[in-house]
TrEMBL record:
Protein name per its UniProtKB record: dolichol kinase
Location(s), subcellular: Endoplasmic reticulum membrane
Gene Ontology molecular function, alphabetical: dolichol kinase activity
Gene: Dolk
Record bears the keyword Kinase: yes
Transmembrane segments: 7-37, 57-76, 88-112, 118-137, 149-167, 207-230, 239-258, 278-299, 320-335, 341-361, 382-402, 422-442, 454-474, 486-513
Keyword hit for Cell membrane: no
Amino acid sequence: PVLVESLLVFIIVLSVHAAVWDRFSWCTVALAVQAFYVQFKWDRLLQLGGAVFQFRGAANSGLLPASMVIPLLGVVMKERCRAAGIVYFERFGVVVASTGMLLALFLSILAVGITKPVPTNTCILTGIAGSVIIYTMKHSLTVSEVIEVLEVLLIFVYLSMILLYLLPRCFTPGEALLVLGGVSFVLNQLIKRSLNVIEGRGDPIDFFLLVAVVGVVLLGLFFTVLFIFLDSGTWISSMFFHMMTAVLGLGVIMPWLYRLIQRNPLFWLLQFLFQTQTRLYLLVYWTFLAASACGVVFYQNAKRSSESKKHQASTITRKYFHFIVVATYVPGLIYDRQLLYIAAVLCLAVFIFLEYVRYFRIKPFGQTLRHLLSLFLDERDSGPLILTHIYLLLGMSLPVWLFPRSCAPKGTLPGAGALVPYSGVLAVGVGDTIASVFGSTMGEIKWPGTKKTFEGTMTAIFAQIIAVALILIFDSSVNLNSSYAWILASVSLVSLLEAYTTQIDNLLLPLYLQIMLMA
């Protein structure tokens, strides 16, 4: 399975660079080759228990698929913005690609460094790849961009040491690279934009995303350190938790946002949410869907109490939430993407806050959340945090958040790029859901070395093609310009990757589909 997964990633890398070939292509190919070799060193370290931190079990390291995501995103973003003539965001794409390569290279060097005996051939490959990347960066980046890349690397190193120690068994090395690398980049962007706020670059909704991500991470770190010295399950600690959350929110996050958007964040948010009648209808509709999701949770828990033999929700039951999320995102993508952007940011902040309440057993809802959510655990929730629902939200939202709006003057990209915001809906909401439901109920022919079935994968590809046809009918802004072969190839490769990867597919698949569609 690891070899097939690696082969699929190599095909995606070569497909992207067949469409977008520049000096960074050599770097990405060199990085992919060395990541393929180092991945086996990480796998061996995980099997022998020789890794520095405790990583998630029942999965390989995932270094190769994770190492390619950020560099490829930067490359395709750079190319799209260059074609649109937006120099600022073209340079931003260069920084994203360089940062992703350096973070992946650091993780590779770490694995090689702690492997005993030292693997000579892998060291040589890593050295060659590192030399190619550094040489290209030297001739592509300005001094300020080099400093920015090194800042992200420094934040990533410290954040990894802290969070991987505090959260054992929550990530594989590849997932840690994606999640912590993304958080490090967001934190660096927020610091940079806070210091250069006079320039007035950026949209207020972008600042909401940056501040929300950094705010919830800092909130978690603060309470983790605090509850080392206090029992988090008492009423006094719970009152202190709620009080400090309010203080940090109103005393730090709100003034920070005010500095960035130059207006009262709460007033701006209320004005934004209720600006048009369409937004009111969407908010009412989303409230109904949120209530429906809560209803599913309560109903399944009531069913568990009456059926003592049933301890975990079935795969099909968990996919109910995928259907609800698709029903949530599709109207937002068609009618108001900016509202969907902000709503997804607020929802992410609420999800992470509720996870803090559950993890720290904050009264009055902490223990109740633990009981309710334990029904929906699967083998990927082996650490102290329950992250699968947060990954589902991220997988659906990242294509919306990462869509280069400034490089798409008409609000959409030409050709297959018009489907980029729908990447999460197609890969996770439709593809992964249909593959899981049909594979578990009617699948008989298993892919070699996996539990996934041939029938599930083929059904997922067919369902995504139908979904693309429906998007063409209902979303008038989408114009594919006869790029149907590329869309079919993209959907097929990502669906095959879903069958063979052991990483969090909710996070990985939408990003790869977005990369393919943007290329």
